[in-house]
Amino acid sequence: MSQHFIENIKIENFKCFENLEINDFKRVNVFGGKNNVGKTALLEAIELLTTSNELMILIYHVHRLLERRQSSTKKIDLDLFRRDSMSSPLHKSFSIESLSMSRHEKISISKDFQKDIGYSIMFSIGDEGIGISPDVFDKTFYYESRDSQYRKPVVSSYFVKSSGIDGDEVSSIYGVVIECGKEVFLDNSINKFDPSFLSFRIILTESGIIPKIKMNGRDEFIPISEMGEGIGRYIAILCAIWASQDGFLFIDEIENGIHYSNYKKLWELIFMASEQANCQVFVTSHSKECIEAFNNVQQERNDDTGRYFELYRSEKKQRIVAAVRDAEQLHYSLTHGAAIRGE
């Protein structure tokens, strides 16, 4: 694997994870399991690890993570810690580290209330610390500092949310496709998704920049908003691979909005394009059909670049753990009725 790829991760006291250790990551990694076993939280933990190697960068990415997940609320909650943690609610810490690219000592966040200024929030990694008052996630602090030298990303990364992809988001990452000279790749990919789709472009109109598709038999380009959620998500994932070149791509609930008949095509493109873009991919899925398509593709490739992990709550250990299955083991589970989604 590429040198920058992570191979193992250990997480303590982060979200629902008391103590989780996972080994044997490959280039394309899929996480399955029941609801509330931490699939999305695991993506977030890996994202924090891979994108943050300095304290100020960590603060920025924690803010971005929480804002992305809590965009519908006015007050961002520091919900990074296990709810049943024995640590004080005003002083908590978590640890995320990789055995192959160790970056973080224990990360601590504490609050201190002062009468004149309200809450002061302290971030620290090991002995290094910084306090921001009255609120580390205040918009002014975020927008004033996001373009400083500390905001330069360690590596390229992109997180595709489980919810719908809007046109502005697709437009923003399409620019990377242009920079990489991958317009033909994208056009060929959407044609594979649906033979009636010929090409994809971002069109400047009086109303603004609008992502559109050229269809067979139609003279004009059609806004992707008229095509349904599936093609927009499909295009966003393909663009996101190149936005994550030489870095990391995270896709939450990859099957959302995409018809099951296109799962295999999508996995073929993810395996192929992630190899070309040299990015490591981490995906969650609820769909047995989607996991089967993933397994079919990795078996056909026979290059050991994919891995499946099942998250489940162990009755014996009384905590969430992960079972790893290579292509052969996953195929056996799928064909013999074994649990693959935490059943």
UniProtKB/TrEMBL annotation:
<dbReference type="GO" id="GO:0016887">
    <property type="term" value="F:ATP hydrolysis activity"/>
</dbReference>
<feature type="domain" description="ATPase AAA-type core">
    <location>
        <begin position="216"/>
        <end position="287"/>
    </location>
</feature>
<dbReference type="InterPro" id="IPR014555">
    <property type="entry name" value="RecF-like"/>
</dbReference>
<protein>
    <submittedName>
        <fullName>AAA family ATPase</fullName>
    </submittedName>
</protein>
<dbReference type="GO" id="GO:0005524">
    <property type="term" value="F:ATP binding"/>
</dbReference>
<dbReference type="Pfam" id="PF13304">
    <property type="entry name" value="AAA_21"/>
</dbReference>
<dbReference type="InterPro" id="IPR003959">
    <property type="entry name" value="ATPase_AAA_core"/>
</dbReference>
<dbReference type="Pfam" id="PF13175">
    <property type="entry name" value="AAA_15"/>
</dbReference>
<feature type="domain" description="Endonuclease GajA/Old nuclease/RecF-like AAA">
    <location>
        <begin position="6"/>
        <end position="115"/>
    </location>
</feature>
<dbReference type="InterPro" id="IPR027417">
    <property type="entry name" value="P-loop_NTPase"/>
</dbReference>
<dbReference type="InterPro" id="IPR041685">
    <property type="entry name" value="AAA_GajA/Old/RecF-like"/>
</dbReference>
<dbReference type="InterPro" id="IPR051396">
    <property type="entry name" value="Bact_Antivir_Def_Nuclease"/>
</dbReference>
